[in-house]
Amino acid sequence: MQVKLARKLGFCGGVERAIESAQKALQAGNGPISSLGEIIHNRQVVERLAAAGLNVIDDPAAARGTVLIRSHGEGPEVLERLRQAGVQIIDATCVLVKRAQQIVAELARDGYRVVVIGQARHPEVQAVCGYAPGVVCVDRPEDLDQLPPGGKIGIICQTTHSPEHFGEMVGRIVARGYGEVKVVNTLCNEVAQRQAAAVELARQVEVMFVLGGRQSANTRELARLCGEHVPTHHLEGWEEFRPGMVAGKIAAGVTAGASTPRWIIEEFVDKLRVFDPSLEE
């Protein structure tokens, strides 16, 4: 089968740094090592690190020894609880997420009511919202009724969202007639490049495969964008592939989220290239 890869796909710098931090801590072997929540949104990577000794905890009260702060970051209250517990903290927060946290705090200090365009339950957004009081999180037009009726509004965005969605939501907020609106672009350029490359490829093939974890927001966004142009399948790996997905197709495209390792991409591409839909038929 003809298989084309997006020109930009797979691990981003923030994910690579988080995994490298975990591997170095495990190699040092200084007592129990845990990550507060899954280090990245990829099941296979989490399982491999767990086999090497990295525990996943959900409650800071369970922290012992060394605790890794995942790439999504944590709010100041959680970090303070860890410090009081006396554990060693390895901060693997993505630098762009940390920047978003700092911007939220600065906007609040300057008197702006902070609005985050993002998914309220996403760990990155939950952490960012902890850096200012009264942060309002909106992600869809129907969420806008949660906004205050007036005053100064400061807007940022979840780093993994698309520029189009960010722009649309900012436009809707501005149209509500606020006297002062400050917008700070906190989008990840790596994610934006992957989105552009995925859409470019989706326009050239008959079916798209987007590889990555179900929980990965940036992978789901890739699948959504590709699905606007061609039949698209979001898979965690080759084991989820079914022959009917390529029935009658000749050319397939492959992309992957920012938390998808290279070995998953390579395995999928190698097996798809030798797959013959005509034999299955």
Topology:
Blueprint: E1 2-5, H1 13-28, E2 33-36, H2 43-51, E3 54-57, E4 66-69, H3 76-85, E5 88-91, H4 95-109, E6 113-117, H5 123-129, E7 136-138, E8 152-157, H6 163-174, E9 180-183, H7 189-202, E10 207-211, H8 217-227, E11 232-235, E12 251-256, H9 262-273, H10 277-280
Parallel strand pairs: 1-12, 2-3, 2-4, 4-5, 6-7, 6-8, 8-9, 10-11, 10-12
Helix pairs in contact: 4-5, 7-8
What is the count of distinct domains? 3
CATH architectural name of the largest domain:
3-Layer(aba) Sandwich
Largest sheet: 4 strands, parallel
The level-1 CATH class of the largest domain: Alpha Beta
| Mean residue pLDDT | 94
Structural class: alpha/beta
Q: What proportion of the residues form beta strands (DSSP E)?
A: 15-25%
**What is the CA–CA distance across the termini?**
14 Å
Secondary structure tally: strands: 12
Proportion in helices: 25-40%
Spatially, the strands of the biggest sheet line up as 1-12-10-11
In CATH terms, the superfamily of the largest domain is 4-hydroxy-3-methylbut-2-enyl diphosphate reductase, catalytic domain
Q: If helices are DSSP runs of H or I spanning 4 or more residues, what is the number of helices?
A: 10
Q: Helix and strand string, N-terminal first?
A: EHEHEEHEHEHEEHEHEHEEHH
Radius of gyration: 21 Å
CATH topology of the largest domain: Cobalt-precorrin-4 Transmethylase, domain 1
Low-confidence stretches: none
